[in-house]
Amino acid sequence: MKLPEFLLDLAKASNQEIYLVGGAVRDLIKRIEMKDFDILCSKNAISFAKHLEEKNLAEIIAISEEFCTAKIKWKINEDKFVIMDLATARSEIYEYPGALPKIKFPVLIRKDIARRDFTINSIVIKLNRSKFYDPFKGMKDLRNRIIRVLHSKSYIDDPTRIIRAIRFAIKFDFDISPEDLKLIEQALADERIIGIIKEVRGIRVGIELKRLFEFDYVAKALYLMTKLNVWNICALNLKINMKNLFKHNEIKSWEIGLFCLFIDNDPSITFEIFEKLGFTSRVINQLKKILLLLDVSKIEISLKTYKIIESLEDEFKECLFLLQPQMKTIYNKMKISLPEISPEELINQGFKGKAISDELENIFKKNYASFNYNDEKPAFLE
Ligand code: ATP
Fold first, then answer.
1. Beta bridge partner(s), residue 132
2. Per-residue pLDDT tens for 147-164?
3. What residues does each domain of the chain span?
4. Which SS3 state, helix, strand or coil, does residue 355 take?
5. How many A from CA of 356 to the centre of ligand 1?
6. Dihedral sign (CA 193, 194, 197, 200)
7. How far is the CA of 24 from the centre of ligand 1 (A)?
8. Cβ(324)–Cβ(293) under 8 Å?
9. I need a surface site. Which of 71, 175, 300, 332 has the fewest CB within 10 A?
10. pTM of the prediction?
């Protein structure tokens, strides 16, 4: 396991103890490409960033006085550079579950490590000495392919960790430890959790769900979310049959994945939550249309309905047809029932105003009713 040269150079140039933390260490041990370089500073990340800039080794991109963090661009050579996030070692104390944590810095490195999510993410490398520091035995869990939190209150302090546990389990094909499964169950059963999500962590839950569903294995994610009953954190009562979704792993959009699990619930709550999770109005409108079209017994066979289906983007159309296969048949039948005559031709024939759309509807309905499946089955019909 070899540290990239630039990290050793960074250590040589440092004016305090610095540590590589988070995903990069995990990826280094797993011998996969390191992406994000998070550097923890024992004294002050901003003064370190300024020190590097003065020496002309790096350029400061951003600074946060509030959290005492800095983002820098480290020059590897004239035309190559790497972005790094520098943070000051801090502690986060949750005064009660779900509260926004009280932050204190600088603190001992161990305290910073203790606020992290999982043992596999708590291994750090002291760069000044190229030495591992692993107080929570993350290496062992990494070897045994286990996801485990650092303390028993972790999931209720921050329920987004439940979704992160699922993401890491899927991403690395690890198991969530039996103790953690119990802790997750307890956290989800805790009556405070809904309030925590709604009031404090809505956006963060949204961000983590987005990361989970952007992943290649959406069906696996949906399966684990359901198996662990995680949907409870959205205060909803879910009972969707996901058979169709599992057969079609290709549904990739996280918004659709999530929507499918919310279908049996009160739409007003569902869409309120979607807004909180950061869904755009474009997506919400598409999902609302799907909702209107799911109950075949309430579908009116009309040009208007056809136009609604037609206005769905491909991915959303696919979702509608997966959830309600009958709609695909109806849609295809509607497609070949479209009026052969155009509105302009009707105008030429003397139709005016509303009479034009009424006539088009009449022709459409007549075509639809007279179409006989058994007589003629165009190739595109299943
Ligand atoms: P990936 O490689 O998938 O991005 P990552 O571990 O780098 O994974 P990030 O979300 O970028 O994930 O987080 C960086 C580090 O910050 C994590 O390794 C973890 O130590 C810490 N962290 C992130 N979110 C939380 C959280 N909710 N609670 C505690 N620690 C967290």
1. 125
2. 999 999 999 888 889 999
3. 1-144, 340-382
4. helix
5. 59
6. negative
7. 10
8. yes
9. 300
10. 0.71
